[in-house]
Design brief:
The chain has helices at about 5-15, 90-100, 125-140, 150-165, 170-175, 220-235, 250-255, 260-285, 290-305, 310-320, 350-365, 385-390, and strands at about 20-30, 40-55, 60-65, 70-75, 110-115, 180-185, 190-195, 200-210, 325-330, 340-345, 370-375, 380-385. The protein is about 45% helix and about 20% strand. α4 (about 150-165) packs antiparallel against α5 (about 170-175). The chain is an alpha+beta fold. It has twelve helices and twelve strands. The structure holds alpha-D-galactopyranose.
């Protein structure tokens, strides 16, 4: 995470006002891909990459949003905010404002500085981190508080209804509710969850294929539509099945022939992935790391072959990790079609693992990957700079 004290200085220099500072993490998903919008199970962890948001009030009725990452500032009238997205980075914070306004909040004038180190377009939820950091910052000015699940829903709505990306709830939920050293098994039907401790002697090694991915891209939308088509076929026979969460492999055996071939494969991934996700949480809870690793490997095969959401580079990154010392499990994480793999690795082996994986990938694929050794971090929070403020 970038240094909040540096962000404070930038905000002070730019806006001549003392900010309050908030941080919202990105995430890595251990298992449970494209299951969230089917009301299924996911098991992500928040990571130590985050978006920081510094906010202070203004008295001129303007909303000024500065992105340090883009080096750009945008200025709006608080009472005449844009009603629709325009494909700009500011869509994410504006989406949050739009949902808060719909919820009946009067948006005040403020200055907001955003600064993040979640790699963009890498499947680590940089957009959710921006939304959640913005939401916490603006809610602090409004003096309003929401429960973790409600806050995650607002941010998901910002992305669905304003930005126009049809994502599920996973990314926003874990950014708000993550816990240090834990993964979180989330039931996306009712948003109940169980924290799953990650063994202290393991590391989350995140390997970036450097192939860009976007949830707003057409592949994500196509997959989601195929999942919904498959569900509609089952629902013709079993009307109580509203989401694939309620469907079984037996349903596919009985009625799969009525589905388009791709819809059948996508559904098989989602249905079996739900089972694997719950099983992986149970395996971790009983300390069965080998079992967890096998489930991650099966999840990657299903994601690659049935869901067809991998790419040659991600398949190579997973394959090249297989015989490296310390590997427990590896798979492509996030929305698919590029981005990062997650490798659960024995902590003591992690540095050598990262170095050798990078070397192998570069030799085979011809791209130098970025590999990060991460820990599961806490969810979104206010960052207190008390000692620093007193000194200044
Ligand atoms: C993206 C979406 C999530 C989820 C994953 C796939 O990260 O934002 O809601 O659907 O893809 O598991």
């Amino acid at each position: 995470m970038h240094d909040p004290a540096v962000l404070r200085s930038m905000h002070l220099a730019r806006f001549k006002a003392e900010p309050a500072i908030f941080a919202a993490p990105g995430r890595v998903n251990l298992i449970g891909e494209h299951t969230d919008y089917a009301e299924g199970f996911v098991m992500p962890a928040a990571i130590d990459f985050a978006t920081l948001a510094a906010i202070s009030r203004r008295s001129d009725g303007k909303v000024v949003i500065y992105s340090e990452n883009f080096g750009k500032e945008r200025v709006f009238e608080a009472d005449a905010l844009p009603p629709a997205a325009n494909g700009h980075w500011s869509d994410y914070p504006l989406g949050v404002l739009s949902i808060l306004a719909e919820e009946g909040h009067r948006i005040p004038g403020f200055s907001l500085c955003l600064w993040g180190d979640v790699p963009l377009g890498s499947g680590l939820s940089s957009s959710a981190a921006v939304e959640v950091a913005t939401a916490l910052a603006v809610l602090s000015l409004l003096g309003a508080r929401y429960s973790g699940p409600a806050l995650a829903r607002f941010c998901q709505r910002a992305e669905n209804e304003f930005v126009g990306a049809n994502c599920g709830i996973m990314d926003q939920f874990i950014s708000v509710n993550g816990e240090e050293n834990h993964a979180l098994l989330l039931d996306c039907r009712d948003l109940s969850y169980k924290l799953v401790p990650l063994p202290h002697d393991t590391a989350l090694v995140i390997a970036n294929t450097m192939v860009k991915h976007a949830v707003s891209g057409s592949e994500y939308t196509t997959r989601r539509a195929e999942v919904e088509d498959a569900c509609a076929v089952i629902a013709r026979h079993r009307p109580e099945v509203r989401f694939l969460r309620d469907a079984t492999v037996e349903d596919l055996e009985r009625w799969g022939a009525e589905m388009a071939p791709n819809a059948l494969k996508r559904a098989r991934h989602v249905i079996t992935e739900n089972q694997r996700t719950v099983a992986a949480a149970e395996a971790l809870l009983r300390g069965d790391l080998a079992g967890t690793g096998r489930l991650m490997a099966a999840a990657h095969r299903s994601y690659s072959h049935d869901f067809e959401a991998s790419c040659p580079e991600a398949d190579a990154m997973v394959e090249l990790a297989q015989d490296l010392p310390g590997l427990i499990g590896a798979r492509l994480t996030g929305g698919g079609f590029g981005g990062c793999t997650i490798n659960l690795v024995n902590r003591k082996d992690a540095p050598a693992f990262a170095e050798r994986l990078a070397g192998r990938y570069e030799a085979q694929v011809g791209i130098r990957p970025e590999i990060h050794i991460c820990r599961a971090s806490g969810g979104a929070r206010r960052v207190e700079l008390g000692a620093l403020t007193e000194r200044s």
